[in-house]
Amino acid sequence: MRGLRKVYPGNVGALDISFTVEHGEIFGLLGPNGSGKTTAVECVGGLRRRDAGSVDVLGLDPADGDVELRDVLGIQPQDSLLPDKLRVAEALELYAAFYRDPADPEDLMERLGLAHQRRSYFQALSGGQKQRLSVALALVGRPKVAILDELTTGLDPRARREVWGMLRELRDAGTTLLLVSHFMDEAEHLCDRVAVIDHGRVVALDSPEGLAARVATAQTVRFVPDRPVDFDALRALSSVRSVESVGSGLIVSGGEELITDVVLALDRQGARATGLRVEQSSLEDAFVRVVDEQDVDGAPDEQLARVAEGRSRVRGMRRPTR
Ligand SMILES: Nc1ncnc2c1ncn2[C@@H]1O[C@H](COP(=O)(O)OP(=O)(O)OP(=O)(O)O)[C@@H](O)[C@H]1O
């Protein structure tokens, strides 16, 4: 996708979105509500017509409406609506009939935990079951490229893990996956790379680890010392920013050398940390920071000056012109 533009009244939508998804990659689009993610992926899927820019999917332009593209592309729309009286198995068989070499609907129902609902009407499915069905419908054509918009919204934690496992298998078998998600853990577990979209533009593009590493200086450790410890000795450590006592436990926050410093300081006091848990800055922190920076970075002129000086912390940040 190069310079995609699809503008709705109010100058919202996709203003200038560019990214390349590699073959066999799980690529995630993250971003606040209304930032343009669905607009972007629906232009990839040929469901919306762009105003400008170019989109190339396996050498085809979705705007041309080629039947060939439909054969290689699977789309799970954000709101999938089927007729109320269509049964689960019927829906899958119907969709399978659109493709030359479809997956086995029975196998898909089994893998997506829908086997018991095979005779259920669409209207009788729970939200999570509808979601599973929409994922199955996106995959029934054995697509080379699958677009999944908020694929696990409404799924219970076990179902989410199962869907993730299935998508990894698909990726390993060569399917390219383009996901829209609001779940940072999903992006962390699943995506090879992510683009953060804000106000219709790509504001960061990196691996989830690369993005999270931008805020990786902050760490927090929680533990229960096996004997009373001297808080001041912990506070005096150069890597420690704060020490908080909660019940019988301690929460210590600080920089990169925090864990080693704290464990050694406890050892000097003859104490041990039990139940030690480390919380590192996550993709969610990075996401919030990247998006916040867009909102607080000030007027376009100031931002331009900052980018020119190399002061922007956001790699891949575009020149903001909002
Ligand atoms: N058909 C439409 N007509 C008018 N405005 C639209 C239309 N579709 C989207 N928009 C607007 O374009 C912007 C981007 O919408 P889009 O659905 O692409 O965002 P999104 O990032 O997918 O949001 P969400 O995370 O909430 O699903 C929003 O301000 C939305 O209101």
Shape: globular
- State the helix count: 12
The total beta strand count reads 13
- Helix percentage: 25-40%
Distance between the termini: 21 Å
Order of helices and strands: EEEHEHEHHHEHEHEEHEHEEHEHH
Q: Looking at this structure, what is the CATH superfamily of the largest domain? A: P-loop containing nucleotide triphosphate hydrolases
The name of the CATH topology of the largest domain is: Rossmann fold
What percentage of the residues does DSSP assign to strands (E)? 15-25%
Q: Could you give a short account of the major beta sheet?
A: 6 strands, mixed
Q: Would you state the CATH class of the largest domain?
A: Alpha Beta
Strand order of the largest sheet: 5-6-7-3-8-9
Bound molecules: adenosine-5'-triphosphate
**Integer count of domains:** 2
Low-pLDDT stretches: 298-322
Pfam families: ABC_tran
InterPro entries: AAA+_ATPase, ABC_transporter-like_ATP-bd, ABC_transporter-like_CS, ABC_transporter_ATP-binding, P-loop_NTPase
Organism: Gordonia rhizosphera NBRC 16068
Subcellular location: Cell membrane
SSE layout and pairings?
Blueprint: E1 2-8, E2 12-17, E3 26-30, H1 37-44, E4 52-54, H2 67-72, E5 73-76, H3 88-96, H4 105-111, H5 127-139, E6 145-149, H6 157-172, E7 176-180, H7 184-190, E8 193-198, E9 201-206, H8 208-213, E10 219-225, H9 231-235, E11 240-246, E12 249-254, H10 258-268, E13 273-280, H11 283-296, H12 300-308
Parallel strand pairs: 3-7, 3-8, 5-6, 6-7
Antiparallel strand pairs: 1-2, 1-4, 8-9, 10-12, 10-13, 11-12
Bound molecules: adenosine-5'-triphosphate.
Adenosine-5'-triphosphate binds at residues 8, 12-13, 31, 33-39.
Pfam families: ABC_tran
Membrane topology: Peripheral membrane protein
Domain ABC transporter: 1-224
